[in-house]
Amino acid sequence: MIQFNQIDANTFLTEYWQKKPLLIRQALPNFISPISPEELAGLSLEEEVESRIVIQQAQQDYALRNGPFSEQDYADLPEKNWTLLVQGMDRLIPKVQQLLNSFNFIPRWRIDDIMISYATEGGNVGPHFDHYDVFLLQATGTRKWMLSAQDCELDNYLDNTPLRLMRKFEIEEEYTLEAGDMLYLPPKWGHHGVALDDNCMTYSIGYRSYKGQELFDSFGDYLSENNLFNQMYQDPSWQNTQTGEINNQAWLNAKQLMLNALNDDQAIQHWFGRFATQLDQNAHNALAEPLNEDEAGDLDTFINALKQVDYLERDPVCRFAFQRINNGCVLYINGFEWPTDGLADGVIMQVANQDRIHADTLQRWSKQRPVAEWLYQLWLRQFIVFPEDKEQAECFEGEA
Predict the structure, then answer these.
(1) Which one of 76, 150, 272, 324 is at 20 to 30 Å from 224 when CA atoms are compared?
(2) Which contiguous run of DSSP H or E holds residue 380?
(3) Which letter does DSSP use for residue 167 in this model?
(4) Is residue 202 within 8 Å of 33, Cβ to Cβ?
(5) Dist CA 172 CA 147 (whole Å)
(6) pLDDT band at 252, cuts 50/70/90?
């Protein structure tokens, strides 16, 4: 877990989370970035990796370029004032994904991704605000952060720029972060970070945000897909109503009909488990293909393998979460409710809570055939994998 120093995690969650910023000096002391600037640049050459370069050309003049990039693109960059940003690094590099274990005081399903940026001296992406929570970990070099709670509104954006930059930015706080330092920012806090040297790498651990419209649309889709909203609208009394009039009771009847659906707690629970674990399009595209018959082998072969490996681990693209519904645990994976009939709640919770299932547990579960068969189904879909199945750590080595 990160080191909060003067406070503890409970105080942070009570007093700071989604309320106000917090500077955490040496939150991860002796942190060593598992990826170098050169390796980060190498990733940005890949078609399937989401990357951007932002160049500050003048005071409020920024150029935005989207990857994939080429070696010539880097050769043509100016010496100073540019930033490379690469999204989804936790899905690409296992050691980056393991960094999330330091943030387990917040449920994992709330995480969006880890973005890593590299900047030359003066590099920045301009003053802006986000609608989500973020931890900004300084990995290497130094960066000055300027913060403001003022004017974080949509009408304060600059016009005719490729980035959403704040037109007015009144600095209220300033901090200089060195390697291991971290800054937490809640939604709608203006921030502007400027690299102070040519070795500036920052990890942005961002959390998902949900617009009310997004929730409403998704729940409506869930009700439709599951045929759960078939109650018919009923007219009110039409006495004393004019020919062209919609009287108050008419719209109140429609409102009550929708409230009936919203008051179905069990439907809301099942929907939200799916909603909270659904993948964005980039993550969905990065999912591994399920194993075919030739690749998989039978259940007994799988069980024998469970007895020999050090661990099984979750594919970092996948999202797992559980809910307690009707005195039992329901598991959600990648936006779907996963069957768990006959399984102990402890098994479901352990698989949802942990990135890795270690050898002692696998030895015990290998002797419980229903559990082993359930794990086998997860493995066939590559939601969980054996260590030798994974190549993320090596697939980009040497590319820069």
Answers:
(1) 324
(2) helix 369-380
(3) S
(4) no
(5) 6
(6) very high
